[in-house]
């Protein structure tokens, strides 16, 4: 320095101890002006490189920009004026030291660089520059010292000697200050940026540097959210760089790179092996054996690593966050050092007062810097996590659309949805802590280093305690994990059972089995609560360890320190600096085990995701889709197909040629490979051999219709544009028009997931309509006619598929079981065991008398003959209108033969005209829309308000009412709640006591009384600390293990009872998912989250109160500051809680569509692929993810926004505690100063937690409200009415009488049965028939009182059924329901849930229901496990189990709701014969779909539109030639 400054002093010692401090001149000339220059030159190369890479467009020159540039140039001129004046003075022979040349030169060059950066940033579209802002700030800060000292010197020396430099300096200072102020303002956004086009752009993109650092730009949303609850439209659009559109392709590209790397490495290895095996390298593999050798050698080749792809895609961004974290870790350790200096300052009474102020402001400054840096780090981490989630979900979704069937088998839908929800979430959570992996060890090492300096080797005692606590905590964590797994298992069991109960609720009610299932649920729940209680014990222990740890560490360290050597004196400085360092240590030590365990979890997730993404994909080339010009639309040559590569081929040696425009029927027995053939044509199967080609586009109708959860119209359009005329034709052809009249919203009706609110037939027809609307070239129809009624099937065949249908001229491949249609098809393909046994026209095949003729003989022959007659006559036009869907409009049943005749004429004409070669197109289109009386629907129909069956789930908005908290307190017990609060107070009193005692102890050092009462000091300190731990333990046990679990038990019980008692209508209007959600998510919240929230909230609340009490007690001045700070705190937290709560709600609402859309997609992949809609669905999924992230992102930022503001309050508390300590140092002992400041340093953490917990508690307490809402659903009639119980042997006869009976489904709907009166004597067999929707099923529901009468009554054997309890009624009737419902559990449980019957009785029932052989062949016999929904039994067997149930109950009255399509003819005959023999003397009501089953019944009841149309013996009815005769004629029985 001497060389540069000459005789100017650089660092004398006197400056700091005077009351008017000043820095020496050389220092002011060198270090201070150089600091900002060094910073800017160091940063700018990197910054310029960064800007070159990331250009955001270009900003027009604005006034602001011009001013900044001009000021920069003036600054450069000012600096060089100094330089030239130095040269001038040198010429005058006044020799100046070199510093006068060097500094202006450096500063001037830097100003030029700054000016260049201002312009360069403008060209690269930077609106506000952090780099320059920091540069101007440092410049101004460094110029303040010379600013003050130049004035001081001028005052002392009465005048200025160097006037030029004096002036240039003040000009320089003024200009830098101006530049600093100007750099706070923003430039306009760049040209052509999204800001101009996007109406709701996120203000972050245009926010300035300061605004970004403090998250000020978020304030507008916080205010909006406070004024009124946020809605979806208030959310900002997602930043471009966070959207799936950019994130997912980025990740997928890296993943592709990884895969190709792995493959190329493999092929390199392969080449090596080839060179080893074959002597001739060009000859690849000498047959299969050699190839196998190679395969086995290659097995250990490396898999592509998904981790590397993730790192390359998201690593660079994440590293910026890590850099912030490093900075923050280092700054953390500045404050304890400042605290030491502050305590020194209070001891040293002669030190000048400005030291105290300087230290206080330094503490404030470092805390503030730490806050800003920490939150930037969090922001980067969270955004990385968010992008990770988007990327992973996108990758999995895209993959799931292309994986093979084999791969699909290995991972179920649930597993894949879990990959998306759970595993992606794990990654997201991990990114926030990942930096702790290196940061925690770093913090621990630094803390130990400073502690060693402070206390010497005694620190090791404290560290030993900490290290001992780690295994203790780890043990607790392990145990908790196992308990959690166990609890999850019980929870899953409970939810699974609950799900079955909800799905089979109708059956439970019909059988009156609710009580037994309620007991089962409560048993599981009890186990679950027992596990929760164990978890609560553990968490109490770990809470105690966590809160007492710093205290125990301090106690051992201090005790060891004072007892090791006589000279060791525990003074305030040592004690409180050590305490604050121990507090810093606490966080990393606790986090490390957590981070490690979450890394372990994430690695498991990573492996699962990687495995899924490495699954083999379908080969898009397996089906040749090129438009070759052969006359065949579909050709398969020597096809050999399997579902998986290593499986047996399902189809072998398949040769099929389908000519352009022909109709091919595929028939064969069950399981002979018909569906497989269709799948092979779609390219869904593994092609082992042969080739397939298809000309043109494909439409596909699967056997199980796949319906999306959207409107009916969207299901049919399936992404194609809406054309009114074409759309109407399609509806008409698929017989959907009458259904639209019944649906509440016409074709705008929202269809539930899996098409829940459509009947099976309607679903199938919608699926068909979708194919029809797509106007493809080739139609693959996989048995679309099985699910619809016979006459509808006929209608569809005639109108759509058959030779005269809309599709004539297209190539159609129809898989069918309906024999009646076969004579009308062009070709028939007969499959036997996966091979084509014969193929040809109907007549040819009959002549051959082969497998096909055999197939026909198995089915009833008269069926065919009768149908032949029909075929000979013109295609029967009477069946013009389907009678499926309640179309009982009189005007459609035309009885005037004239009209009919006219219509036939018309049809003939049209069909002749449509053969006109001139203009076939136009005519056939007309022909397709067979001119009807109402081809156009009335216009007003379309605009009606859609009445939704399923009401939207209510989300509460706004503040949570106090009532809800009160509900929870009532569940816990009001007195107990108060006592718990009181205990928390006691615990914090003990903590304050211990710390005050410590400060007294340290004051002994001042008065040199350390030795005499050392034992007492240590003893009392220990006692206070341990009592604090004991209080915490007691509190946690009382709070979590007892009272809160009591509340959890009570709330669940009430809800379960209410749900089981709810009427049937409730379940029809409420999706089961919603009820399940209450039982899983909300109950879980009440079980675990709320107790935890309350616990943490109470602890942090009392801690904060402690801090404020201590500071105010020591320096009463502090009270003045507390009031405004607390007001500000209250204000911020109100804004935050209102906004963040609503954001959380929006986020959870927008999250479930991602998963439901996904599981829907997975079930429909083959349809999506067949129609070529992959890209559209990927876009849809991306949109849903972005929609979710749109509400998640402000949620993250709201936490940062809050953090910066709350920590600012904490920093102010630190500032004032230190200031007042400095001011009142004469009155305060060093111990008390240490106490108050070290307390204040801890407060930011607890303030932050308190707001978080308040907000979490508010979000979670809603669960109590939601559970309560379902606990208060209206109930059905009582199960047992004590004074009206029927006699035990009731009903003795089985007489049933309906008296003027009417009923409706729900309030406000029309009557389904109107004024029905009839008498049935005991033992009669009654068949009930009628068109769909005539009220057949409603009659049976009325008998069981699932529907309560609107009018009139039903009397069974002199007892009015409306007066007795429901269980008394239902247990005396028996029903065999249409859809057999089984519950998961043993077969015995399914037959007899109450254990009423002996094994003999069960076996007898099984024998009579023809199940004995099947059951006795099973190893488990009666304890055979039925899977969920009875999936491991066939539908026929399930139906027989229901029969066995009926045989066991053997009541006087049996209701049989006949199964339609589920059962094959054989099973049906079995059931019928059993009923005829076993229930001979019972009254039987049968709802018949197949008329032949009821032709020998006593009487038949024909219902029409809810009224009795005919009621007589079958013979009489046929003679009457009424409705029944018409139906019998259709069925070929009359």
Care to describe what's here?
By secondary structure, this protein is of the alpha/beta class. The protein contains 51 helices and 22 strands. A hairpin with a 2-residue loop joins β14 and β15. α18 runs antiparallel to α22, α19 runs antiparallel to α38 and α38 runs antiparallel to α42. The chain is elongated and about 135 Å long.
Uncertain runs with pLDDT below 50, 5 residues or more?
278-299, 860-947
Rg over CA atoms? 42 Å
- Structural class call reads alpha/beta
Strand order of the largest sheet: 6-7-8-4-9-10
The percentage of residues in β strands lies in 5-15%
Based on DSSP secondary structure assignment, what is the total number of beta strands?
Answer: 22
Overall body shape? elongated
How many alpha or pi helices? Answer: 51
Query: How much is the average pLDDT?
Result: 81
Helix content: 55-70%
Question: Main beta sheet: strand number and arrangement?
Answer: 6 strands, mixed
Compute the separation of the termini in Å.
121 Å
Defining key terms:
alpha/beta; 22 strands; 62% helix; elongated; 1534 residues; six-stranded mixed beta sheet
List the helices and strands and how they pair.
Elements: H1 2-5, H2 25-29, H3 31-53, H4 63-91, H5 99-123, H6 130-156, H7 163-182, H8 194-197, H9 209-214, H10 219-227, H11 244-277, H12 288-298, H13 306-332, H14 334-347, H15 353-400, H16 405-410, H17 413-433, H18 436-455, H19 459-503, H20 505-511, H21 514-564, H22 572-613, E1 623-624, E2 632-642, E3 651-659, E4 663-667, H23 674-682, E5 686-694, E6 698-701, H24 712-717, H25 724-733, H26 737-742, H27 760-773, E7 778-782, H28 790-801, E8 811-815, E9 827-832, E10 835-840, H29 842-848, H30 851-858, H31 861-872, H32 897-914, H33 920-928, H34 962-972, H35 974-1007, H36 1014-1061, H37 1064-1069, H38 1072-1114, H39 1118-1163, H40 1165-1170, H41 1174-1223, H42 1230-1271, E11 1296-1304, E12 1311-1320, E13 1325-1329, H43 1336-1343, E14 1349-1356, E15 1359-1360, H44 1366-1370, E16 1373-1376, E17 1385-1386, H45 1387-1391, H46 1399-1408, H47 1412-1417, E18 1425-1426, H48 1435-1449, E19 1453-1457, H49 1465-1478, E20 1483-1487, E21 1499-1504, E22 1507-1512, H50 1514-1520, H51 1523-1530
Parallel strand pairs: 1-5, 4-8, 4-9, 6-7, 7-8, 13-20, 13-21, 16-19, 19-20
Antiparallel strand pairs: 2-3, 2-5, 9-10, 11-12, 11-14, 14-15, 17-18, 21-22
């Amino acid at each position: 320095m001497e060389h540069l400054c000459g005789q100017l002093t650089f660092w004398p010692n006197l400056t700091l101890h005077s009351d008017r401090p000043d820095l020496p001149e050389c220092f002011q000339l060198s270090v201070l002006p150089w600091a900002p220059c060094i910073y800017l030159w160091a940063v700018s190369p990197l910054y310029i490189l960064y800007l070159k890479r990331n250009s955001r467009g270009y900003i027009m020159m604005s006034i602001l920009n011009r001013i900044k540039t001009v000021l920069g140039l003036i600054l450069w001129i000012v600096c060089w004026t100094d330089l030239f004046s130095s040269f001038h003075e040198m010429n005058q022979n006044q020799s100046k030291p070199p510093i006068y040349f060097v500094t202006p030169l450096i500063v001037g060059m830097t100003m030029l660089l700054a000016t260049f950066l201002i312009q360069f940033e403008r060209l690269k579209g930077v609106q506000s520059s952090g780099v320059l802002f920091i540069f101007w700030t440092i410049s101004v800060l460094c110029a303040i010292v010379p600013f003050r000292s130049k004035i001081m010197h001028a005052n002392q020396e009465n005048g200025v000697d160097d006037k030029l430099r004096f002036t240039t300096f003040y000009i320089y200072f003024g200009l830098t200050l101006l530049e600093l102020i100007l750099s706070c303002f923003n430039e306009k956004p760049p040209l052509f940026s999204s800001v101009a086009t996007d109406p709701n752009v996120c203000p972050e993109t245009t926010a300035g540097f300061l605004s970004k650092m403090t998250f000020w730009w978020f304030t507008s949303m916080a205010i909006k959210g406070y004024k009124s609850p946020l809605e979806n439209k208030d959310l900002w659009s997602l930043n471009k760089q966070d959207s799936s559109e950019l994130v997912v392709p980025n990740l997928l590209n890296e993943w592709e790179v990884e895969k190709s790397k792995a493959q190329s490495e493999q092929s390199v290895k392969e080449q090596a092996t080839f060179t080893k095996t074959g002597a001739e390298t060009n000859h690849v593999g000498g047959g299969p054996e050699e190839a196998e050798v190679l395969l086995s050698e290659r097995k250990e080749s490396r898999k592509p690593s998904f981790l590397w792809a993730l790192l390359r895609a998201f690593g660079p961004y994440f590293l910026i966050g890590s850099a912030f974290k490093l900075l923050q870790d280092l700054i953390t350790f500045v404050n304890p050092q400042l605290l030491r200096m502050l305590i020194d300052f209070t001891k040293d009474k002669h030190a000048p007062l400005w030291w105290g102020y300087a230290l206080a402001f330094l503490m404030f400054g470092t805390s503030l810097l730490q806050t800003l840096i920490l939150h930037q780090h969090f922001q980067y981490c969270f955004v990385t996590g968010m992008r990770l989630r988007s990327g992973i979900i996108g990758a999995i979704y895209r993959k799931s659309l292309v994986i093979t069937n084999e791969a699909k088998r290995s991972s179920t839908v649930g597993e894949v949805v879990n990959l998306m929800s759970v595993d992606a979430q794990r990654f997201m959570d991990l990114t926030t802590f990942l930096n702790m992996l290196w940061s925690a060890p770093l913090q621990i090492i630094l803390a130990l280093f400073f502690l060693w300096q402070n206390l010497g080797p005694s620190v090791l005692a404290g560290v030993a305690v900490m290290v001992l606590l780690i295994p203790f905590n780890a043990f607790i964590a392990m145990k908790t994990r196992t308990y959690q797994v166990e609890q999850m298992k019980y929870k899953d069991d409970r939810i699974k059972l609950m799900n079955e109960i909800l799905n089979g609720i109708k059956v439970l009610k019909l059988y009156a089995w609710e009580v037994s299932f309620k007991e089962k649920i409560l048993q599981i729940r009890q186990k679950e609560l027992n596990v929760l209680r164990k978890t609560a014990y553990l968490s109490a222990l770990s809470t105690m360890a966590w809160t007492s740890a710093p205290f125990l560490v301090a106690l051992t360290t201090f005790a060891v320190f004072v007892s090791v050597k006589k000279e060791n004196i525990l003074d305030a400085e040592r004690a409180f600096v050590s305490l604050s360092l121990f507090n810093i240590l606490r966080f990393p030590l606790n986090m490390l085990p957590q981070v490690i365990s979450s890394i372990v979890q994430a690695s498991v997730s990573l492996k699962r995701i990687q495995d899924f993404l490495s699954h083999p994909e379908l080969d898009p080339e397996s089906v040749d889709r090129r438009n070759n010009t052969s006359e065949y639309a579909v050709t398969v040559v020597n096809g050999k197909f399997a579902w998986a590569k290593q499986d047996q081929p399902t189809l072998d040696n398949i040769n099929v040629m389908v000519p352009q425009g022909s109709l091919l029927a595929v028939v064969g027995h069950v399981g002979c490979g018909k569906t497989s053939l269709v799948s092979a044509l779609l390219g869904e199967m593994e092609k082992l051999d042969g080739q397939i080609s298809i000309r043109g586009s494909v439409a596909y109708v699967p056997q199980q219709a796949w319906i999306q959860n959207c409107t009916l119209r969207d299901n049919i359009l399936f992404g194609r544009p809406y054309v009114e005329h074409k759309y109407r034709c399609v509806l008409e052809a698929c017989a959907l028009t009458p259904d639209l009249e019944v649906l509440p919203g016409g074709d705008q009706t929202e269809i539930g997931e899996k098409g829940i609110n459509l009947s099976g037939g309607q679903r199938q027809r919608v699926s068909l309509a979708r194919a029809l609307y797509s106007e493809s070239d080739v139609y693959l129809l996989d048995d679309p006619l099985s699910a619809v009624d016979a006459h509808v099937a006929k209608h569809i065949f005639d109108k759509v598929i058959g030779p005269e249908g809309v599709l004539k001229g297209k190539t159609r491949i129809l898989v069918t079981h309906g024999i009646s249609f076969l004579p009308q098809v062009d070709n028939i393909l007969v499959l036997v065991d996966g091979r084509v046994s014969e193929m040809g026209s109907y007549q040819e095949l009959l002549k051959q008398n082969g497998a096909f003729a055999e197939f026909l003989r198995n089915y009833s022959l008269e069926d065919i003959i009768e149908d032949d007659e029909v075929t000979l006559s013109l295609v029967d036009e009477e069946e013009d209108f389907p009678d499926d869907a309640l179309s009982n409009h009189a005007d459609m049943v035309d009885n005037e033969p004239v009209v009919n005749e006219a219509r036939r004429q018309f049809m003939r004409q049209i069909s002749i005209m449509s053969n006109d070669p001139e203009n076939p197109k136009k005519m056939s289109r007309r022909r397709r829309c067979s001119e009807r009386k109402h081809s156009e629907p009335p216009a007003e129909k379309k605009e009606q308000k859609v009445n939704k069956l399923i009401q939207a789930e209510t989300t509460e908005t706004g503040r949570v009412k106090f009532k809800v908290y009160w509900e929870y307190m009532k569940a816990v017990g009001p007195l107990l709640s108060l006592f718990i609060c009181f205990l928390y107070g006691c615990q914090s009193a003990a903590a304050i006591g211990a710390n005050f005692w410590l400060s007294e102890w340290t004051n002994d050092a001042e008065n040199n009384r350390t030795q005499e009462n050392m034992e007492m000091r240590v003893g009392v300190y220990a006692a206070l600390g341990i009592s604090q731990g004991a209080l915490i333990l007691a509190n946690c046990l009382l709070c979590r293990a007892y009272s809160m679990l009591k509340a959890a038990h009570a709330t669940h019980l009430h809800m379960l009872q209410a749900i089981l008692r709810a009427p049937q209508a409730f379940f029809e209007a409420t999706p089961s998912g919603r009820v399940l959600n209450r039982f899983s998510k909300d109950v879980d919240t009440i079980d675990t989250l709320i107790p935890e929230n309350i616990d943490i909230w109470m602890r942090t609340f009392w801690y904060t109160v402690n801090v404020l009490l201590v500071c105010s007690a020591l320096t009463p001045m502090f009270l003045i500051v507390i009031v405004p700070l607390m007001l500000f705190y209250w204000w911020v937290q109100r804004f935050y809680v209102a906004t963040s709560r609503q954001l959380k709600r929006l986020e959870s609402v927008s999250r479930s569509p991602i998963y439901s859309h996904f599981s829907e997609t997975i079930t429909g992949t083959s349809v999506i692929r067949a129609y070529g809609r992959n890209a559209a669905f990927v876009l849809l999924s991306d949109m849903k993810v972005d929609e979710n992230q749109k509400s998640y992102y402000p949620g993250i930022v709201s936490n940062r926004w809050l953090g910066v503001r709350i920590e600012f309050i904490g920093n102010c508390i630190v500032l004032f505690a230190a200031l007042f300590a400095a001011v009142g140092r004469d009155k305060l002992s060093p111990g008390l100063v240490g106490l108050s400041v070290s307390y204040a340093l801890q407060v930011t953490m607890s303030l932050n937690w308190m707001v978080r917990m308040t907000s979490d508690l508010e979000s979670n307490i809603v669960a109590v409200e939601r559970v309560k809402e379902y606990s208060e659903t209206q109930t059905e009639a009582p199960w047992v009415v004590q004074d009206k119980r029927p006699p035990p042997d009731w009903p003795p006869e089985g007489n049933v009488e309906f008296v003027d009976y009417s009923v409706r489904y729900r309030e406000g709907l029309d009557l389904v049965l109107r004024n029905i009166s009839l008498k049935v004597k005991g033992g009669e067999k009654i068949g009930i028939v009628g068109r769909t929707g005539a009220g057949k099923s409603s009659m049976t529901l009325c008998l069981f009182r699932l529907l309560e009468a609107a009018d009139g009554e039903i009397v069974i054997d002199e007892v009015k059924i409306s007066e007795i309890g429901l269980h008394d009624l239902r247990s005396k009737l028996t029903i065999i329901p249409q859809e057999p419902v089984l519950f998961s559990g043993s077969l015995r449980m399914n037959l007899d849930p109450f254990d009423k019957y002996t094994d003999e009785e069960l076996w007898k029932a099984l024998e009579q229901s023809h199940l004995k052989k099947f059951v006795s062949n099973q190893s488990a016999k009666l304890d055979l496990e039925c899977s969920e929904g009875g999936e491991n039994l066939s539908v026929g067997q399930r139906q027989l189990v229901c029969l066995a149930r009926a045989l066991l109950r053997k009541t006087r009255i049996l209701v049989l709701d006949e199964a339609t399509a589920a059962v094959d003819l054989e099973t049906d005959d079995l059931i019928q014969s059993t009923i005829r023999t076993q229930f001979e003397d019972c009254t039987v009501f049968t709802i018949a779909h197949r008329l032949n089953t009821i032709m020998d019944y006593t009487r038949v009841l024909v219902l029409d539109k809810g009224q009795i149309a005919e009621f007589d013996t079958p013979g009489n009815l046929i003679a009457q030639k009424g409705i029944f005769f018409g139906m019998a004629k259709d069925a070929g029985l009359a």
